[in-house]
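Q: Hi! First time doing this. I have a protein sequence and I read that you can turn it into a structure. Is that right? Here it is:
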Amino acid sequence: MRLQRRRFSDSTDVRRFPLGTAEVVELGDLVIGRLEYQPGWRWVTEVKPVAGTEWCEHHHVLLSVSGRLRMQLADGAELETGPGEVAEIPPGHDAWVVGDAPWIGFDVAGMRTYGRSRDTTVDRVLASIVMTDIVDSTRIASDLGPSDWRNLISEHNRLAGEAIERRRGRVVKTTGDGLLAAFDGAEAAVRGATAIRQAARSLDLAIRCGVHSGEVEVTIDDLRGLAVHTAARVMGVAGPNEILVSATVRDLVDGSDLVFEDVGMHELKGLHGARQLYRLA
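A: Yes, that's right. Below is the predicted 3D structure, encoded as structure tokens:
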């Protein structure tokens, strides 16, 4: 995490389709789009041929600046948004401009691949993702003060990094009070998560952890894709010192000596349907 700034006017990622334009900028893991749709624009007629899906399958968080936009979910539910309003749209929807004025707004959630062809070639690999964060980090930081908190986080990151390397993983990035790590295999990822938890305990810290396996897009200093978001959502369900894994991970480590407890089905924000999760025993 660092201070940074981008201009939409300097964007090299401009996606154009009939009656619409999306200017996209990236701030590390955050992808933001400035959208402008002309009167008559509708997703099902202008973007569907590019996306190749029956409905828009992106999760959007929109800030409307001018004009009006109406959204309809696959189940028929509708919502309209206008200037000064923020709207969240789950996957599985259509949208269209209302009235004779263009709709202009910003999207802070669904822009990584929105408006791109499904056939666009990207470098993707299979990986097992570990996401962690420190429980109650805000209170701890307040109690310790900035200097001691920085020292504690630095030591946590050092110990966690060593634990990950011992299991042939790599730290992709730190997140202020946690980290994202990648492993070649699911079992290595779960054992890496266990080692990270032990390192945190040695500093009297509790962490929560999520593990998921899937395809990711690799960049110089990051991993992107649905598998990363899924790991983060799994982590969000975990309690203090819990390691939760997806059903995918549980199936991949079948036959190992790792033991899991069924914690039921969970709705994970931004993902389709309830997901089965397991706790490392």
